[in-house]
Design goal:
- It comes from Polaromonas aquatica.
- Keywords: Lyase.
- GO terms for molecular function: enoyl-CoA hydratase activity.
- This is Enoyl-CoA hydratase.
- This protein is of the alpha/beta class.
- The protein is 43% helix and 17% strand.
- Helix 5 crosses helix 6.
- The longest helix is centred in the first third of the chain and has 16 residues.
- 37% of the residues are buried.
- Hexanoyl-coenzyme A (HXC) binds next to helix 2, strand 6 and helix 4.
């Protein structure tokens, strides 16, 4: 597939690379329309299927990760378009099917669908100029890609209500204090920081990495005892992998592990 609204690249050693997807509609502050979301889903799936890729970074421009769904495109839609034809939201949940870690490297605005997109990623590293918000209320709508569900899980009810009901933005430091963001770094260090984290993840055994992601995500889908049992079974399963033997043998013999992702 040829992409018009995103850029893709890779970084790192050939054997284990980081796949980078950059949202690229800078004039519209990376407003998310159906074509962009189709391209994004396709690029993420291609990286997920590529055995040489160990981790994925999703990023935008300095001024905007994404300022939300494309309001111009949505303005004339009616119920028959959005419900009947599944315009706007059709590809979003596919992002949750990506099994390799996806890090959001966020600078500038992450608003509406842009904020929801960051929350579909596995963790968020923010530049100090990042601003997060769910301003849909100002347009007469509510978040439509998981914002009312993932934001309260990330920051608690009070702040989620505050953001969704007032439409205000929160800056990177507030987002970090609230637990939405895992790290805040100066803008010019954002990609270095994200790449450092991604390359570290690439250096580990892929099966354990995928299992850790799947198990943490299960925390949002199940009660505690079911979640703990799910984790326990994955933990047990990893003892059937070569990487577990390699990782533990390397530790015991004080050498660097060479994971084979098997
Ligand atoms: C379409 C957008 C856009 C958007 C910005 N632009 N956001 N176009 N959809 N969501 C366009 C502007 O129209 C403008 O185009 C150009 O990008 C630059 O934006 P400005 O407003 O001139 O920039 P600035 O003054 O710096 O303000 C930045 C901003 C503001 C605060 C981010 O643009 C803004 O409030 N945008 C809308 C944010 C929003 O409401 N997001 C939620 C959307 S609803 P021109 O042609 O004039 O240069 C949503 C629902 C999700 O996301 C549902 C699930 C999928």
């Amino acid at each position: 597939m040829t992409y018009e609204m995103i850029l893709t690249s890779t970084q790192g050693p050939d054997s284990r690379k980081v796949g980078i997807v950059t949202l690229n509609r800078p004039k519209q502050l990376n407003a998310l329309n159906d074509q962009l979301m189709d391209e994004l889903a396709s690029a993420l799936k291609a990286f997920d299927a590529d055995e040489s890729i160990g981790c994925i970074i999703l990023t935008g421009s300095e001024k905007a990760f994404a300022a939300g769904a494309d309001i111009g495109a949505m303005a004339q839609y009616g119920f028959a378009d959005v419900y009947g034809k599944d315009y706007i939201t059709r590809n979003w949940e596919q992002i949750r099917d990506i099994r390799k870690p996806v890090i959001a490297a966020v600078s500038g605005f992450a608003l509406g669908g842009g904020c929801e997109l960051t929350m579909m990623c596995d963790f968020i590293i923010a530049a100090d100029n990042a601003k997060f918000g769910q301003p849909e209320i100002k347009l007469g709508i509510i978040p439509g890609a998981g914002g009312t569900q993932r934001l309260p899980r990330a920051v608690g009810k009070s702040k989620a209500m505050d953001l969704a009901l007032t439409g205000r933005m929160m800056d990177a430091n507030e987002a970090e204090r609230a637990g939405l963001v895992s790290r805040v770094v100066p803008l010019d260090k954002l990609m270095d920081e994200a790449l450092g984290a991604a390359l570290m993840i690439c250096s580990y055994g892929q099966l354990a990495v995928m299992a850790a992601k799947e198990s943490i995500n299960r925390a949002f889908e199940s009660g505690l005892s079911d979640g703990v049992m799910f984790e326990r079974r994955l933990f047990h399963a990893l003892f059937a992998t070569s990487d577990q033997k390699e990782g533990m043998d390397a530790f015991v013999n004080k050498r660097k592990p060479a994971f084979t992702h098997r």
